From TrEMBL:
InterPro entries, A to Z: Polyketide_cyclase/dehydratase, START-like_dom_sf
Species lineage: Bacteria, Bacillati, Actinomycetota, Actinomycetes, Streptosporangiales
Region of interest called Disordered, as start-end residue ranges on this chain: 90-127
Protein name per its UniProtKB record: SRPBCC family protein
Length: 219
Protein backbone atom coordinates (compact mmCIF):
# COMPACT_ATOMS: atom_id res chain seq x y z
CA UNK A 1 0.00 0.00 0.00
CA UNK A 2 1.58 3.33 -1.04
CA UNK A 3 1.93 5.46 2.09
CA UNK A 4 3.21 9.02 2.34
CA UNK A 5 3.74 11.34 5.29
CA UNK A 6 4.85 14.94 4.92
CA UNK A 7 5.43 17.53 7.63
CA UNK A 8 5.88 21.30 7.43
CA UNK A 9 6.31 23.97 10.08
CA UNK A 10 4.26 27.11 9.64
CA UNK A 11 4.96 30.52 11.13
CA UNK A 12 1.32 30.82 12.16
CA UNK A 13 -0.50 29.88 15.41
CA UNK A 14 -2.43 26.61 15.60
CA UNK A 15 -5.79 28.38 15.83
CA UNK A 16 -5.30 30.13 12.50
CA UNK A 17 -4.05 26.99 10.75
CA UNK A 18 -7.06 25.04 12.02
CA UNK A 19 -9.48 27.78 10.93
CA UNK A 20 -8.02 27.47 7.43
CA UNK A 21 -7.85 23.67 7.21
CA UNK A 22 -11.31 22.92 8.62
CA UNK A 23 -12.99 24.55 5.60
CA UNK A 24 -12.50 22.45 2.43
CA UNK A 25 -12.90 25.31 -0.08
CA UNK A 26 -9.80 26.99 1.42
CA UNK A 27 -7.37 24.25 0.44
CA UNK A 28 -9.12 21.75 -1.87
CA UNK A 29 -7.87 23.55 -5.04
CA UNK A 30 -4.29 23.03 -3.79
CA UNK A 31 -4.61 19.26 -4.30
CA UNK A 32 -2.78 18.00 -7.40
CA UNK A 33 -5.29 17.08 -10.12
CA UNK A 34 -8.17 18.85 -8.37
CA UNK A 35 -11.29 19.21 -10.52
CA UNK A 36 -14.05 19.76 -7.96
CA UNK A 37 -15.30 18.80 -4.51
CA UNK A 38 -18.88 18.45 -3.33
CA UNK A 39 -19.57 18.67 0.40
CA UNK A 40 -22.37 16.17 1.12
CA UNK A 41 -22.45 17.04 4.83
CA UNK A 42 -19.99 18.07 7.54
CA UNK A 43 -18.50 14.55 7.57
CA UNK A 44 -18.59 13.50 3.93
CA UNK A 45 -17.39 14.94 0.63
CA UNK A 46 -16.99 13.74 -2.96
CA UNK A 47 -13.75 14.63 -4.73
CA UNK A 48 -13.06 14.55 -8.46
CA UNK A 49 -9.35 14.32 -9.28
CA UNK A 50 -7.52 13.96 -12.57
CA UNK A 51 -4.05 12.59 -13.12
CA UNK A 52 -1.74 10.47 -15.22
CA UNK A 53 -1.39 6.78 -14.36
CA UNK A 54 1.34 5.41 -16.55
CA UNK A 55 0.55 6.60 -20.08
CA UNK A 56 -3.15 7.12 -19.36
CA UNK A 57 -4.95 10.18 -18.05
CA UNK A 58 -7.63 9.13 -15.60
CA UNK A 59 -10.35 11.00 -13.75
CA UNK A 60 -11.51 9.47 -10.49
CA UNK A 61 -14.28 10.24 -8.02
CA UNK A 62 -13.44 9.59 -4.37
CA UNK A 63 -15.67 9.65 -1.32
CA UNK A 64 -13.97 11.02 1.80
CA UNK A 65 -15.55 10.25 5.18
CA UNK A 66 -14.24 11.92 8.34
CA UNK A 67 -13.85 9.37 11.15
CA UNK A 68 -11.99 11.44 13.76
CA UNK A 69 -12.44 15.17 14.39
CA UNK A 70 -10.41 16.68 17.23
CA UNK A 71 -10.50 20.49 16.94
CA UNK A 72 -7.05 22.13 16.83
CA UNK A 73 -5.38 18.68 16.88
CA UNK A 74 -6.30 16.00 14.37
CA UNK A 75 -8.61 14.92 11.55
CA UNK A 76 -8.74 11.35 10.23
CA UNK A 77 -10.64 10.19 7.16
CA UNK A 78 -11.24 7.19 4.91
CA UNK A 79 -11.28 7.16 1.11
CA UNK A 80 -13.53 5.04 -1.11
CA UNK A 81 -13.25 4.95 -4.89
CA UNK A 82 -16.58 5.57 -6.63
CA UNK A 83 -15.37 5.21 -10.21
CA UNK A 84 -12.25 3.12 -9.56
CA UNK A 85 -11.51 0.17 -7.29
CA UNK A 86 -9.42 1.72 -4.57
CA UNK A 87 -9.58 2.53 -0.89
CA UNK A 88 -7.45 4.45 1.54
CA UNK A 89 -7.18 6.64 4.58
CA UNK A 90 -5.39 9.73 5.76
CA UNK A 91 -5.00 12.31 8.46
CA UNK A 92 -4.08 15.90 9.23
CA UNK A 93 -2.22 16.35 12.53
CA UNK A 94 -1.59 19.78 13.99
CA UNK A 95 0.56 20.74 16.97
CA UNK A 96 1.94 24.00 18.31
CA UNK A 97 5.65 24.82 18.27
CA UNK A 98 7.17 27.61 20.34
CA UNK A 99 10.57 28.99 21.27
CA UNK A 100 13.51 27.33 19.52
CA UNK A 101 11.33 24.95 17.51
CA UNK A 102 9.29 27.83 16.08
CA UNK A 103 12.51 29.20 14.63
CA UNK A 104 12.49 26.27 12.21
CA UNK A 105 9.11 27.24 10.76
CA UNK A 106 8.98 26.81 7.01
CA UNK A 107 11.44 23.91 6.86
CA UNK A 108 9.77 20.73 5.58
CA UNK A 109 10.63 17.26 6.83
CA UNK A 110 9.65 14.23 4.75
CA UNK A 111 8.86 10.68 5.75
CA UNK A 112 7.79 8.38 2.95
CA UNK A 113 7.39 4.63 2.74
CA UNK A 114 6.92 4.96 -1.01
CA UNK A 115 10.29 6.65 -1.54
CA UNK A 116 13.44 4.59 -1.79
CA UNK A 117 14.91 6.28 1.26
CA UNK A 118 13.30 8.84 3.58
CA UNK A 119 14.93 12.23 3.89
CA UNK A 120 16.30 12.34 7.42
CA UNK A 121 16.15 15.69 9.22
CA UNK A 122 19.34 17.05 10.71
CA UNK A 123 20.08 15.84 14.29
CA UNK A 124 18.19 17.93 16.84
CA UNK A 125 21.36 18.84 18.75
CA UNK A 126 23.03 20.10 15.58
CA UNK A 127 19.99 22.20 14.63
CA UNK A 128 19.93 23.72 18.12
CA UNK A 129 23.63 24.62 17.96
CA UNK A 130 23.10 26.31 14.60
CA UNK A 131 20.12 28.26 15.92
CA UNK A 132 22.03 29.34 19.02
CA UNK A 133 25.00 30.49 16.93
CA UNK A 134 22.70 32.42 14.60
CA UNK A 135 20.89 33.96 17.59
CA UNK A 136 24.22 35.13 19.06
CA UNK A 137 25.19 36.63 15.71
CA UNK A 138 21.82 38.41 15.49
CA UNK A 139 22.21 39.74 19.04
CA UNK A 140 25.66 41.15 18.25
CA UNK A 141 24.37 42.81 15.10
CA UNK A 142 21.36 44.26 16.93
CA UNK A 143 23.60 45.71 19.67
CA UNK A 144 25.86 47.30 17.06
CA UNK A 145 22.89 48.78 15.20
CA UNK A 146 21.33 50.16 18.37
CA UNK A 147 24.70 51.60 19.45
CA UNK A 148 25.13 53.33 16.11
CA UNK A 149 21.55 54.56 16.31
CA UNK A 150 22.27 56.41 19.58
CA UNK A 151 22.60 60.05 18.69
CA UNK A 152 21.27 59.50 15.19
CA UNK A 153 18.03 60.98 13.96
CA UNK A 154 14.64 59.50 14.84
CA UNK A 155 14.22 57.62 11.54
CA UNK A 156 17.46 55.68 12.04
CA UNK A 157 16.52 54.72 15.60
CA UNK A 158 13.06 53.64 14.43
CA UNK A 159 14.52 51.49 11.67
CA UNK A 160 16.91 49.77 14.09
CA UNK A 161 14.07 49.09 16.53
CA UNK A 162 11.89 47.65 13.77
CA UNK A 163 14.59 45.23 12.63
CA UNK A 164 15.26 44.12 16.20
CA UNK A 165 11.54 43.54 16.76
CA UNK A 166 11.21 41.50 13.56
CA UNK A 167 14.15 39.30 14.59
CA UNK A 168 12.49 38.63 17.94
CA UNK A 169 9.14 37.79 16.32
CA UNK A 170 10.71 34.98 14.30
CA UNK A 171 11.07 32.92 17.48
CA UNK A 172 7.37 33.28 18.34
CA UNK A 173 4.54 30.79 18.14
CA UNK A 174 4.11 28.55 15.12
CA UNK A 175 2.57 25.24 14.11
CA UNK A 176 3.62 21.85 12.81
CA UNK A 177 1.26 20.33 10.21
CA UNK A 178 1.55 16.69 9.14
CA UNK A 179 -0.46 15.16 6.31
CA UNK A 180 -0.47 11.37 5.99
CA UNK A 181 -2.06 9.44 3.12
CA UNK A 182 -2.49 5.72 2.38
CA UNK A 183 -3.99 4.48 -0.89
CA UNK A 184 -4.74 0.86 -1.82
CA UNK A 185 -5.73 0.04 -5.43
CA UNK A 186 -8.05 -2.93 -5.94
CA UNK A 187 -8.81 -5.41 -8.69
CA UNK A 188 -6.51 -7.64 -10.75
CA UNK A 189 -4.32 -4.68 -11.80
CA UNK A 190 -3.65 -3.61 -8.20
CA UNK A 191 0.07 -4.61 -8.05
CA UNK A 192 0.89 -2.67 -11.22
CA UNK A 193 -1.20 0.32 -10.13
CA UNK A 194 0.65 0.43 -6.80
CA UNK A 195 3.95 0.76 -8.65
CA UNK A 196 2.56 3.52 -10.85
CA UNK A 197 0.88 5.43 -8.02
CA UNK A 198 3.73 5.41 -5.50
CA UNK A 199 5.85 8.12 -7.21
CA UNK A 200 2.73 10.27 -7.77
CA UNK A 201 1.62 10.40 -4.15
CA UNK A 202 4.67 12.10 -2.66
CA UNK A 203 4.49 15.27 -4.80
CA UNK A 204 0.70 15.34 -4.30
CA UNK A 205 1.03 15.25 -0.51
CA UNK A 206 4.02 17.61 -0.34
CA UNK A 207 2.44 20.12 -2.74
CA UNK A 208 -0.72 20.21 -0.63
CA UNK A 209 1.03 20.78 2.71
CA UNK A 210 3.49 23.33 1.34
CA UNK A 211 0.60 25.04 -0.47
CA UNK A 212 -1.32 25.36 2.80
CA UNK A 213 1.79 26.80 4.45
CA UNK A 214 2.33 29.31 1.64
CA UNK A 215 -1.32 30.43 1.72
CA UNK A 216 -1.23 30.99 5.48
CA UNK A 217 2.13 32.73 5.63
CA UNK A 218 1.22 34.98 2.69
CA UNK A 219 -1.99 36.02 4.41
Amino acid sequence: MPQIQYTVQIATPVERVWAFVEHLPNWAPLMVGYQKVVEVNDRQSIWTLKGDVGMLTREVDLQADITVWEPLKRVEFTLTGLTEKLSGSGSFTLEPVTGDDAGEAGTPAVESSAAAAPIAPAPRRKRRRLREAFARFQARMMRRMMKRADGADESVRAAAATIASAAADRSGEGSRLTFELHVQPGGPMAPMLELLMAPMLEPAVSDLTTGIRAALEAG
